[in-house]
Amino acid sequence: MNRQQRTVRVGLLGLGTVGSGVLKALSQNGESIAERTGCRIEIPYILVRNPEKKRNVEVAREQIITDPDLILTSPDIPIIIEVMGGLEPARTIILKSLRSGKHVITANKELLAKHGAELLQTAEEAGVQLLFEASVAGGIPVIRFLQGYLTANRVQEVSGILNGTTNYILTKMEQTGQSFGEVLVQAQELGYAEADPTSDVEGFDAAYKLAILTNLAFDVKVPVHDIPREGITRLQPLDLQWAREFGYVIKLLGRSRRTEQGIELSVGPRLLPLTHPLARVNDVFNAVMISSDVVGDLTFIGKGAGEYPTASAVLEDLMALLQNSGNVLRSSSWNTPLQQFEGRTEVQNNLVRLDCTRESAAQTEQVFTHFVEKLGGAILKKVRASHGQEVVLGYVTAGVSGYVIEEFLKQQIADSFSQLVIPCLAEGEANVGHELSQNSKESELFMPQSV
Ligand SMILES: NC(=O)C1=CN([C@@H]2O[C@H](COP(=O)(O)OP(=O)(O)OC[C@H]3O[C@@H](n4cnc5c(N)ncnc54)[C@H](OP(=O)(O)O)[C@@H]3O)[C@@H](O)[C@H]2O)C=CC1
Ligand SMILES: N[C@@H](CC=O)C(=O)O
């Protein structure tokens, strides 16, 4: 196919496992990419920490830089790929890039789980895209799927093996009887582990990924530090062998599911019967299971770590950008608050219901009054509900959604606002859903006729 081609310059931040994979895959498939997209990818700069380090991929010395400003201030670099990891300076560089009109592709799950809302909002305000397929489950295209496909479904549960390093370790410990420490070193050598493998083996990495998936699947904001989390460091080869004798395997599972009380999340080693679909997902493979009300169960399996599977996800994001340039893909509703506004009747035609603890009621009302005064509207009523909660009803004039009001309130009274309460369920799993007062009656709480 002869198609006119243009050159697209991309700034690469990081040249470790993933960055090298991106370069290798580009050199392998650059021609077919150019034919399909009409774009030749050029990487003028690669940001690293140590410019003297020996690399396992061929790069020109002039490409290697240690000053991110060379990328940030280049107007002819419209896209950056962040595969350096960590919170800072990655967060600051990404924010600056987005604000200066650059699209960003990142594999950084920790950053997204902790600062995703800020980054996505910044991207939206700047009219650019932030894509992060590589942040969860390596090469499995689950992010794109949740963002763009399951819109007609209501997701009930997302679960899976979300960390390649720990799945590799558990598989090898069971198969070879090698110790945890021995197999961890192999996972590091294979490029599966994080720079600090504590993140993998203590379940943090899986929790970050679960937070991202939960956010997309349930439109909730997940306080990632509150996800109950346990790693695999306590496990011995014998645990795994005995489990198998009884007909089970042990897998590090992340799970979030919709319950009457809210969204429950947990990460930890779980016994799975040998007949379970995830029991045979071994080595560096990940699996994500999604149960939804219309389609039923879907399972995705693929390599969850390593240079090529991760590079594949990064490059597919790049292809999406090149093929959609100018069109902003549907972004996540990352900020949508928990259950209160989801399918219930708390926000109707700008009629807003706010639940708060008895102690914080006065403060809530004060902040809310101030807000409706600024925007136009009225406080309708304050009612006392059961379980120590009070309910403030208000009306805000057109143009402002209940969501905006709630976000505003959360910022003002974050500590006391009842939506931030995270009660623990009996079986030790956290419920980050919003607890509605069981005795509140909708008819008491809404008085549209008086608006
Ligand atoms: N490895 C994997 O399988 C996967 C990784 N990820 C994510 O991708 C990201 C990168 O992972 P990975 O490639 O494994 O990490 P590595 O540690 O292998 O590579 C990190 C790269 O970033 C550079 N870097 C780090 N900090 C800085 C800094 N402050 N300034 C400049 N350069 C810096 C390093 O430079 P230098 O080489 O000079 O030290 C290195 O080239 C992480 O967010 C990780 O969580 C996501 C999915 C899978
Ligand atoms: N360390 C991570 C890398 C990919 O996200 C893992 O092992 O899954």
From TrEMBL:
Known catalytic reactions: L-homoserine + NADP(+) = L-aspartate 4-semialdehyde + NADPH + H(+)
Associated pathway: Amino-acid biosynthesis; L-threonine biosynthesis; L-threonine from L-aspartate: step 3/5; Amino-acid biosynthesis; L-methionine biosynthesis via de novo pathway; L-homoserine from L-aspartate: step 3/3
Keywords, ordered alphabetically: Amino-acid biosynthesis, Methionine biosynthesis, NADP, Oxidoreductase, Threonine biosynthesis
EC number(s) per entry: 1.1.1.3
Pfam families in alphabetical order: Homoserine_dh (PF00742), NAD_binding_3 (PF03447)
Residue ranges crossing the lipid bilayer per the database entry: none
GO molecular function: homoserine dehydrogenase activity
Residues in Aspartate/homoserine dehydrogenase NAD-binding domain copies: 14-133
Domain Homoserine dehydrogenase catalytic: 141-319
Family recorded in the similarity comment: Belongs to the homoserine dehydrogenase family.
PANTHER family, sorted: HOMOSERINE DEHYDROGENASE
Official protein name in the record: Homoserine dehydrogenase
